[in-house]
Fold these 2 entries.
Entry 1:
Amino acid sequence: MEAFQLLSRGGLNFDKKRFKNDVRLFQGSASISVDKDTQETDGSELPAELDFFKYAQGGSTSKRKAPSKETAQSKKRKLSPGPDEAAAQSLVAKQRVTAKGSEVPQAVETFEELGERYGLSNQLLSNLSKNGFSTPTGIQSHGVPILLNSRDLAAISPTGTGKTIAYLLPILGALKTPNGKADGSGVRAVIVAPTRELAHQIHNECLKLAEGRKWRIVLFSKATASTLADKSVRDKIDIIISTPLRLVVSLQAGTLDLKNVRHLVLDEADRLLDAEFLSQTQEIVAACSRTDIQKAVFSATLPAGAEKIAMEMLHNPIRVVVGLKDTPLPLITQTLTYVRDDHSKLPSLLQYLAQPYNPPLLVFTSTQPRASSLAEELVLNNIPNVDCLHAGMTKKEREDAMSRMRKGESWVMISTEVMARGMDFKGVREVINYDFPTSVQSYVHRIGRTGRAGREGKAVTYFTDDDAPHLKTIANVLLQSGSTVPEWMLKLPKPSKMKRKSMGKVKRAEVVNSARKIGRNDAIKKRDMVAGSKRRAKKPAAKDESKAD
Ligand SMILES: Nc1ncnc2c1ncn2[C@@H]1O[C@H](COP(=O)(O)OP(=O)(O)OP(=O)(O)O)[C@@H](O)[C@H]1O
């Protein structure tokens, strides 16, 4: 990690001349899969599908030059849909939706219908259109009316299909006026997400949707938690967005109460209801003690066990499933690539990165040390703009890495499960599972970082001999979502229930290049010897000092 930090601090500097082909690639002009007619840029602009700058807090697209004249190309663009329009069409295209429950409210076709039927304010509707949301996606069409009818909801919709707006919109619609003017006092809505990064992203989305109204929307952190310890401040808060632990710490310290909460959303619900988070989630649910509280759970995946817990938590819920449960969108082209063993993965990845690829690229490893080690190896192999993000890094390091990713400064982001869920970087076109995922759910969420908002994506998963027993499970996911799978993979035996639990959990070295370990061990030995002899040399001097005292 040290070498990596040293080389990449503040984003890696690289020689733009030397990597001019890569620069062109990043700017869209050398991309092999993009229609040239729709990709013309003036060099200062990023192509629309890479334009995730606007999602950075405080970021804005307005500073970038607007094309002054209507060119032949831009005229042509109006005739045939460009990549963004095509993506939007594909995002809102009719998907199979099943809604089960009693008295299911009718879905809406347009956002305007929400205004007519539920009195959703013009301000909210105009904020939707300002953010480019002109037509509701499947989960928005069905989920928003359900929530606006004060019903509990279990929503399962594929990655990148707009679940965030599906719960934020009805919450803001139902809250109507900012706290203080409304009845009662205290926090009125809580949104829980499993990672800090995701909570931050939801907060940003919420601020954009709430623009123009003085709702108090708080991203719960150590600092905001201490401000909110003051009840008079807390009483004015409308919405809190938080990770579970942060809420639990404040609840246990008695510096937060959730007795006035009317809307509770669990985003990435199956993660929040798994063994690691369950007790914290239950504590939060129990603290939201209003009898008329509305609860909703959202995820792209909801395995049977988690669904059972969720359904027991909800009151007379409606269950909405968009597409096929636990299945990625067909927009993502998926492949399974054989690499003989763990040591063969690095050369395979380096070879992959030597070909033209679509940055930014997300690479998933199984552990924090492996993520750091892989990032370090790529930097040492002169791969430009490598970044790393995992939960073992400090808050500042994580924030910096996120910011570089959002600004488009990271071309290759190495990460762990921490980035697998919910993170929305529209520009991510390729995902590589360097280490095999630990479950179907992990696979679906990881590859779901691409193919978002109706765009196309590509996912490559490396498998070794050790992963072979689990290959059929993932091959079935590929098949179900329309990717091609070699015949022999489908003929593999089905793993037993016991075996399935061990998916992706093979023992792997902490460093991805064990040759490096040899040199590193020698260096550590040498460093310890030098430190030891320095200590010994210092000892008599220290004694002398104490005598002088
Ligand atoms: N109605 C809409 N029209 C166009 N774009 C939309 C619409 N709703 C949401 N989006 C965009 O789609 C992208 C994905 O949305 P979001 O992050 O909410 O997906 P998600 O379903 O929560 O995915 P995940 O399961 O990975 O968390 C975002 O960039 C969002 O701005």
Entry 2:
Amino acid sequence: MMSKFIVRGGKRLTGSVKVSGAKNSVLPIIAASLLGEVGESVIMDAPPLDDVITISKVLESLGAGITYEGEVIRVNAEHITSCEAPYEWVRKMRASFLVMGPLLARCGQTRISLPGGCAIGTRPIDQHLKGFEALGADISLGQGYIEAKSNGRLRGAKIYLDVASVGATENIMMAATLAEGVTTIENAAKEPEIVDLANYLNAMGAKVRGAGTGVIRIEGVEQLHGVQHNVIPDRIEAGTFMAAAAITGGDVYVEGAIADHLGPVISKMEEMGVTVLPDENGIRVIADKPLKSVDVKTLPYPGFPTDMQSQMMALLLVSEGTSVVTETVFENRFMHVDEFQLMNAEIKVEGRSAIVTGGSKLQGAKVCATDLRAGAALILAGLVAEGTTEVSGVHHIDRGYVDLAEKLSGLGADIWRISADEAPKPVSPSTPVEVKDTPVLKVQPTWV
Ligand SMILES: CC(=O)N[C@H]1[C@@H](OP(=O)(O)OP(=O)(O)OC[C@H]2O[C@@H](n3ccc(=O)[nH]c3=O)[C@H](O)[C@@H]2O)O[C@H](CO)[C@@H](O)[C@@H]1O
Ligand SMILES: C=C(OP(=O)(O)O)C(=O)O
């Protein structure tokens, strides 16, 4: 069903909100479950997101048994019946491509559709393929599919990544767990989700060392088994709620947020004049003074995350002074700028930088989420805009946020969701939000 978010600006957010499990952790972890030749994996704190359903469908199409109920996913990959990941699922989500490494290691061959995903740049996969080739795979491309074949077991190798790609690091790391000998990945990505994946692989019996640093060493083992694992909290969802608190002059406790994972986001908010108080269970954010402009440059972890760039830009629109936002990770991630402009924002894009004139009196408008984080940013702007903002393109937002309207309205925001053909009727602040069905996927293993 086509939906929209309706936001009426002007509410100060207060209270506590709980962060869900990280999308960018659970997706590679589900893919890695394909490596478990013995027993079942139980993945806890799995966020009920559309992307999680998509990757579950990919695993199901490969013959793995997968059930998804509440926030627990069970994967039984003892019997894989296919090593081909079809276009139908892979086109929907780029992260589906993460099954390539596990399938190549497990089956010695794989055929996989070229990935789709958010339109934030060309997003090549050359570094993934370079890694697989170094491990001994033959790669061929044709008709929108990539085929990889290895002559027997993959062989450990030294791989230097030209860019510290998150996905390539994960894909190569997974493939190398079952290779013969030692693999080292140099210039590896250091994101917390890489560490979570390495912890999961190690619990399955792998020997991965150095995850979270620029050099990861993987000693291949013969076999991996299913395990139970808790997914880390989503640092980008946490950052989005921190931004919601800051933009509304609020006082919000973001439960489950890990300050260590949010270093640059916390620093930038502090520079803007926001009080950020981390403790062992979460982060309290208090915004009781006008926000000051800051310059922001996105970088691979531990730099400022590209996935928080658009939300930060929303904050800068209402800050005092002029800010420069520079995007260095993706080449085309300013699509929210046009939509912000519909809300009376003053922004000029020059190459990889956006010059944001603060102090805008944002006006509610009909806008469209062009990608996941752009959608989150438009909702943030809507929280402080005068009047009503309608955000369409909700399917992008559903990829990465669990119950966003419900969580924000729990903090006092005036936000709800309607189906696109419904007229956005004026409501009282206490109008209940429409509750989305929790996705439940119950698939019987094909060999039962
Ligand atoms: C599911 C998931 O975890 N998604 C995250 C992951 O995406 P993803 O893993 O796709 O992002 P990468 O780290 O691979 O991409 C970073 C940069 O490297 C380039 N590149 C990547 C691979 C490659 O083979 N060649 C190449 O040139 C990309 O075009 C991009 O410019 O990390 C991004 C960067 O933090 C985040 O925005 C995404 O939310
Ligand atoms: C870009 C993102 O995700 P993906 O890599 O899955 O498109 C994101 O989470 O902001």
